[in-house]
Amino acid sequence: MTDTTPASRLRVVLLFGGRSSEHSISCATAGGVLAALDRDRYDVIPVGITRDGAFTLQPDDAAHFALDAEKLPSVEANGTQVRWPESSATREMTVVEDGVERSLGEVDVVFPILHGPFGEDGSVQGMLELLGLPYVGAGILASAVGMDKHFAKTVLQAAGIDVAPWITVPARDWADRRAVVEEHVEELGWPVFVKPARAGSSVGVSKATSLASLATAMEIALAEDSKVLVEAAVVGRELEMAVLGGRGGGAPRTSVAGEIVLADDKFYDFESKYLGAPGADLVCPAALSGAEFEQFSELAARAFDAIGGAGLARVDVFLTDEGFIVNELNTMPGFTPISMFPACWLASGLSYPALLDELIALGLETIR
Questions:
Q1: Which residues pair with 82 in a beta bridge?
Q2: How many domains does the chain have?
Q3: Domain boundary pick from 82, 115, 135
Q4: Structural domain for 93, as ranges
Q5: pLDDT tens by residue, 203-215
Q6: CATH number for the domain that contains residue 220
Q7: In a domain, 1, yes or no
Q8: Would you tell me which of 30, 321, 334, 336 could form a disulfide with 16, CB atoms 3.0–4.6 Å apart?
Q9: Residues 217, 155, 122, 247: is their CA dihedral positive or negative?
Q10: What is the DSSP letter of 135?
């Protein structure tokens, strides 16, 4: 099998789709990345994971994965079967199509843009490390911690970082000790936000204002995960900051801040994030004083380091009268055209293609 890629180009596997409920958002992110990668610098292999977990070779066509509210993009089985290297002794990938196996060449780096379980949670990262393949983004532990909201909060709190008050409710507690759970929730005060512990993109998230609405919110969240977070609502400005790892093991770098401005009684749900639903506006850069920006920048870098972050992350906070409270840390934020992560870096002077170049460079130099 012959590798025909010019030596001056890097071969990048773009890995997307997956088995989680965020499958379509991952595909939409793939569309944005495919459109922006410089083909004079990169030979791109688009590997899509179907909802059943099959690795397939997908078209190198950004339009194929465009985000459309009427028909969300997805990875469909197409008769191809991508095969990863047999061991860490080689980086050659192959594809089987119509019963014939052909080489996809030696891989330089994998760019996993998977959101949610079975991709953003350390599972794919573990596979890539077993194969000895460099990859973009957080390692196994940071990915797992960032994916699990309970453990992320626990780690951040241990690092002296303020987080929103919460309780974690396993499915068995809701089934067997519901009255006790309800008592603890009422101690948080109404309203509360109910979230699957290991999901993103606001999938399965609801606002509850009473015990009656709590029951409905728990049902929605438990449909996504067997463990649920119930968080006290925090009154404050919703701000986000993008983080990049430092080159050569240097300190994390932070972008300008962005702000989510919501209409009354609205929260930043899936439709607002990705489908352009009314009621939420993204402002970047956010209006902060110099002192507020410096404090937020230092906090975002601390949070990134606290979980052992690498490559990239987005840190979401509330700015209250008492100061900053970290809401979440996302180790693989979206790259769709309306996502905050690339918007923050664009406002900081780093274009979308240049941001991808930087992430790939970080992936190549990271030693796991």
A1: 95
A2: 3
A3: 135
A4: 10-135
A5: 789 999 999 999 9
A6: 3.30.1490.20
A7: no
A8: 30
A9: positive
A10: B
